[in-house]
Structures are given as structure tokens and as C-alpha cells.
Fold each of these.
Amino acid sequence: MKTLVLGIGNPILGDDGVGVHVAQELAKLIEDDAITVEDASTSGLNLLDIIPGYDKVIIIDAIMTEGGEPGESYRLRPEAFSKSVHLTTSMHDANLPTVLEIGNKLIPEEMPHEIVIFAIEVEEIDKFTEEMTVRVKEAVPKVLNLVLGELGKK
């Protein structure tokens, strides 16, 4: 099975870069020709340049929920976001569920059969800094282990 592990985020916006940081650490740990580990500071329809052609995609990204505690991690499926599929004024701002919906309509044979999302609750995403907050930084090892477990590498 061809698998992509994709860390998404902006590493100069504090906690928003947590997905990128986790992917960079995973790249040091995983040596398997069937698993590709990448990080991307992109979103929207640009993801359709990255995820097609894989059987399984594991996405690691920041999330901010009402009442969530910074550093909490969640294992989610795209269906959890079904109510958030929408078109925006800019296709560059299309959220992940919308991108997946478009991909499944346009290139269904190339889209992954399985998508798992590991989301890390963040605290600060509006300040220009490469440093994550303490609680988010402390969550990185736990998320590394969760992803390794998902890959059967633990």
C-alpha cells in the first residue's frame, strides 16, 4: 500500500506549524519505500497536486476548536468535517473537506481510499514566530507515536 504522511501548516505562524514539525521528525524515523513523508505550507486546491496517487494519506495539521485544550490531539476522518464542505470566494482558501470532495468528483480513481487526520489543538496562530507554545510543543512526541502506530511502525 502506497502511503503519504503529510504535515500541513505554516512554520512561521507559531502553533500553526505543528503539522510541519511532526512531519519533519517522522521523516527522520521512517525508512520504508512504501511511505512518503512530506510537509507542505500549502492548502486549498494545491493539495490536489500532492495527495492523488496514494492509497492512504495521513494528514497532520493544527486545529482550533471551541473549548479545546492546547496540545490535545484528535484522530479524525474526513466524515467528521462533512458539514464544513463549502466553496469560498477563493479556491486557495478551500478547506480540506471541500478539497477532498472536489478531488473525488474530478479524479476519483486517483484519490486515496483512506484518509486519516491527526489534528493538534493549538493556542497561538496569529503571531509571526517559528516557536510553538509549550503545550503544543509537548504534544509533538505523542502525535509522533500516534502516527507511527497508524503506520504499524510502533
Note: Residues 3-150 form a domain with the Rossmann fold fold (CATH 3.40.50.1450).
Amino acid sequence: MKTNVAIIGAGPAGLTAAYLLSKNNVEVTVLEADPVYVGGISRTATYKGFHFDIGGHRFFSKSKEVNDFWNEILPNDMLDRPRSSRIFYGGKFFAYPLKAFEALMKLGVVKSTLCVLSYAKARLFPVPNPTNFEDWVTNQFGKRLFNTFFKSYTEKVWGIPCKEISADWAAQRIKGLSLGSAIKNALLPQKQPKDQNKVIKTLINSFKYPRKGPGMMWEACAEKTQALGGKVEMGCKVVGCEYDEATATWTLRYKDQAGEIHTLESEHVISTAPMRELVNGIQPSVSDKAKHAANSLKYRDFLTVMLILKNRDAFEDNWIYIHEPSVKVGRIQNFRSWSPEMVPDPNLACYGLEYFCFENDGLWDSSDADLIELAKKELMQIGLSAEGDVMDGTVVRQKKAYPVYDDDYAKHVATVRDELDARFPNLHLVGRNGMHKYNNQDHAMMTAMLCVENILADTKLYDLWQVNGDAEYHEGGEAAVEQTTGTALRQVPSRVKAPVLASEQT
């Protein structure tokens, strides 16, 4: 079988590229390993009529192109939803973003005073050029608030000490937010600016959301792609990518659901697969240096225990961050608060308890029954259910949910990127795992949009690595591109002064 563009993975990046290429009459085949769901980590799973996310996925972007794309794919099914989240710590719930007086009352005068003094010290004597998460956050909030509201949760997420996590992750996920901005927001709440570029993503108060979860968006995108002639092959796992230097073409080998091996020839490959897996599957092989760099990249895995229980209106938040070290759960989603249509019975609630782990560790290898019992116990311990409330549950495991930002990740990514760019000009890395960037779906989509522009123009109009966490393109130097030749974008994305990395989605 032959195609012009082969796309590995039917997540937001892969399907965005597939749809836009198909609109431009480019032959496209998407190979997706999952036999049932498109959307990757942005899919919506179902169980007995209940819908639930693999993590929470707010639809909010500063990019007009991304917003227009969402409206084009799902024009009549997007809800406006209020944003609400809290932190659970020390047996108490704290609003997030911070409400200064509430925090003062719940922490107590002595602890709050010490936190403010700690913040003042951090502002007067900051850690110069912070390189790790702990030092970066301490500079923004002070050591005491770091220990109270960041340390436990962050180490649950990553499974490594905060000193070993790159400051890049902090800058990306909580950009623009400090104790000062949080207190200002609490004391002087402002209306959401009309200019979305002025919004700190961590402080947004509303967002768009599909009626039945984010998977609804990507299922519609896959259907529209197929209606345009593109192919989306489910249950097809790519096991090798062979490059012919003489013809500059690719042959992908993939295994179908029956275990049979097939091949697919293509002029271009767009990969959203984990960088480590891609590099190890390429022929001819990359250098030992690049392979070592790829194999040094780390990933954090993730599982959701979805519980169906009696609806006691225990909480109305979209999610609650669990900073309490006495329980293993890291975050709890309330799917009715995302959309009432996620839960078919008004007398029932549907919660998702999220556990961060490594593949094949004790938690990951626990039976579904044991995980459901753990989730039931911890939900009661936190105070969000009572004995006998839980009626049913299921477990979903997600491999490689988070590319780990350890001390050396950037060096390893640069090593791999440089060799792939030099040797394989028609191989394009996009999306979260494809680029080993802990991004949101709008960022993943923008990398795909610009990748499509490059393919349509048959030249490198854009360096995809210059898309920032706000899904904007950071143009470098005075030789920046002035126009595009395709139809994915109506204009060159706004020029920004520096990469701006932000937000709190999974």
C-alpha cells in the first residue's frame, strides 16, 4: 500500500494534520495502535453509559487558528463551562487559584505570616538562574508555600524529587503566576480580558468543552478526515520505519489486530509516537549517540480509577489536586462538572481518581479490583464519599502520559532532533510524545498545523520547535517567514518576544 503522508498516531496532533492534509487533497493514512479510541490521551472512554476523560482537558487557547479549527470540527456541541478547582491539603480544601483570606484562615495566622515572610525572603534573595523545579517555584512563592502546596503533589506526579525536575516544567505549567499575581487576582478579581493573549492560563475562569468529552472532538475529526478520502486505520501498531535514501521514501511496517504484519510506503512520515520508540524503530539505525539520548528519555505513566457512586453533591469542582501525602491519589475529576451529559443518571456521580506511576511498578501491576478498593478507601479518607456510596468502577491505564523533564531531557532531545533533522528531512515530529514536550492539545495541534504548511510548501517554512505553550509561533531573527502557501492557517501566527510556556491541563 502507498500513501503520500503516513501519520503515526490518531491523537490531537495526528488527526489535525490528517484533516488539514485531506482538505488539501493530499493522500493520508493514519495508523493508530488503539483498536477502539481515537484522541490519544485526549480520548473519552465509556463504561456502562458513563463518559470519562483520561485526565481533564479544557478547551482554551490563545490561538485563533486552533479555536477556529475546534469550531469547524464540532460547531454545535461545545459548551461554555465554569472553571473550578481546589487543593486538598492537611485535611482542608483550598481554592485554586489562591484566595488570600481563605488561605490565611485555613493555614492559621502563624503559618500564613511565615509564608509571607518566606515569600519576601525569596523575592529579596532569589536563587540565581534556577535550573530545577524546587528553586524556580521557591523564587515565585517562597520556600514555605513550595513545601505546602507544590512539593508533595509534584513528586506524586513525577516520582522523583523536585530538585531533579527541570525548571522548564515549572515555567511551562505555571507561567505568569506568582504569589503576588494570585493574591491580586483574589483581592481584585477582574473580568476575563477580551484579548485572550492577556489571560494567564492558570487563572482562566471558563472554558469550552464538548458535550460528551474531548473524544467527541477527535471522533468527529476522524470522521471528517475519512469523508475527505483520508484513511484512519485502528488497531495498527507501527513496529518499524525504513528510510530509502536513494528515493527519499519511507516504508512503515505495522501490526494489525490479528497480529499480521503489513507495510505502508509514503513520501512523508508525521510521527506522534514517543520519541524513544520511534528512534529505536528507524532503519538505517541512528548513531549510538542519538540512540543513547533517546533511550535516556523517561516517561511517567498514569491510571484512572473511575467510580460510579451515589450523588451526594460532595463537590462541584472540575477537579481537586490532592496534595495530601497520606494518600496515593494525585487528582480527582468530577465528570458531571465537566459536562452534565457525561453522567446519564442525575442520582449518580462519576469521579475519576488519578494515580501517577511507572509502568510495571506495584501500583501499575495491581489488579483492577485492588485499585478500585484503594480508590474507594481514599475517597472516603478525603471525605468525598461514605461507606456504601460506591456502586461500580473501572480502571484505565495510560502508558507514557507524561514526558519527564529531568535535568538532562533537553540535551537528549536536542541530540535526537539534530540527527533526525540532518538525516531524514521528510520525517516530522509533532505533538506531546513526538517532541517530548509536556504540552496541551492546542500546542500539539499548532505543531501539526505548521507541519502541514511545510509539507504543502515542500520546504521548511516553520521550525516546529518554535511553537510555544500558548500555541503561538516564536519567529526567530529577521528572516522570519512572512506568509504561508497552504490553507491550514489564514495568517502567520502572532510574533512573540520569547517562548511562553503555560497551563495546567493533563
Note: The first strand starts at residue 2 and ends at 8.
Amino acid sequence: MFGYVKAYKPEMKMSEYDTYKAIYCSLCRQLGKDFGLTAKLILSYDFTFLALLRLAALDACCGYTTMRCPFNPLKKCYRLKDYSEEMSYTAACVVLLFYYKLKDNIADSGFFGKFKSYLLLPFFARYRKKACKEYAQVDQNVDEMMRSQKRAEDEKTVSFDKAADPTAVCLSKLFNRENNEDGRSRIYSHFGYCVGKYIYLMDALDDLEEDIKRKNYNVIAHKYLLYQNANPQEMQTAKEAAKALINSCIVQAAATFELLELKRYQTIIGNILYLGMPNALKTIMNKQEKDSKPKSEGIE
């Protein structure tokens, strides 16, 4: 996950934001407990969404307490009193996804990207080995996603659905960890699929300008033939098409969310879906519009 699935703070109540932060801080602490200090550095609010979703389905809430933040000892923050198995599962997802991201960076990045990934790889190879003892199926799911993604990129597919499918399938399995065929599991699976497709397309849109410049594969650029000196109108057409599809993913995810039987955190998860994700899309579109404007010459 890449920073596209987070709450929209201006529309949250203080109590909701405190709860949201408490889940984030608890996940940070769980990463340190299970894997070590380095693992904490890769945490993002995207994974808080996964933790929220898993905890929201539990019958009982373990309650909250306060702690000192290790990165800011003068500051007190809330955390869960007990660390449920759901938090350990989410922490394992964090390190396994990041491990395979490092492997992908080594294969596809430039010199500095490879160098940074090589420095981190020994740490996360060790974390991956530890995570696999308890969550080997998660490792297999992520590995399959990366292999399928590589095949789609090697084929240079122009299909948004085909390009996004590996990420969407992986998220569907991570969200539905029971992997059975009852109605509840199918709802979680479809919910994860919609969120995964949204994440992939958001990342493609966010990286569009850079991928074109570096001649990297990007499904939007390939579908709209943007590598050969595309004019501003063609670029805008491609971005608007991607935006429409991303909005469709958000709508489908929100509709599926309404079918979930959650015991708590409905308003926080609703904030992420109805406000946070659309705001992340708006932020990317505004950034791209700003970057595409020609810089004025001289001083006015």
C-alpha cells in the first residue's frame, strides 16, 4: 500500500482520530515486538486500514491504554491494551509486502534505487523468514502477485483490468484470510479486490509522468500511447479516463463496505472510503495539473 488509503482528518471527531491513531501506534509497536526497530520505519496508514477492518469484525474490543512513543518519548499516545492475533497478522503483511517490493526495486530501479534496496534487503529477508513461520500463505499470496504482475508488465498489457488484477487478487486474499466460500468471506474478498484495484491504478496515475520520462511500464501510458511526445490534451484525456475508473473502484468498495457486518469502527472506515480515498485522488490530480503547467520565465 502506498499512502492512498487513509482517513480525511478534517472530517473526523477527535475521539475517532484518537482511536485511529491508537490502532496505528499499536501496529507500530507490534512491528517492533515481532520484527524489530527497522520494521517500524516502513509503517504507513494504509496498513492501519487493514488492521481496523480485522479488529472491527471481532466480537470484543480489548480496550486502550497510554504509552510513550519510542520516537518521541515526551509524547504520550494511546494503544490497544492487548495485541490480538489480528495485529500480528497485519504486521506480517507489512513486512512481507515490503520485502517483495524491495525485490521488485532491485529488478527494475535505477542505480540509487537498487543500492537502497540492497541495503535493506538483508533485514527484511530475515523478517520474511520469521513471518513465514506463522503466515506462509500470506507470503505465497504476495509472491504470486509479484510474479503475475511481472508477467503483465512484460506483456505490456494495455488492459487496466489485467494490469490491476494481480494486486487486486492479492488484496482480496489478505482481506479474506479465512479463504472459505461462505457469504461473509466472499464480501470481504470482493471488498479487498476493489481496494487493491484502486491502489494499483492510483499508483499508476501518481507515477505516470515519471514513468513516461524513464520509459518504465505504465498501463495508462501504454493504453493511450503517451510515450511518443504526447500533447497536453492526450495526457489529460488519459488522466481523466484513469480518474473515472478509480472513482468506480471507490464506489464499488463503498457499496461492498455497506454489506460488512462490523462491530465497531464503522465511522472511521467510512471516513476513509467516502472522504479519504477521494481526497487522495484529488490530491494526485491537482499535483499532476500543477506539474504539467509550464513554468513562467523571468520575474514578473
Note: The two ends are 42 Å apart (CA to CA).
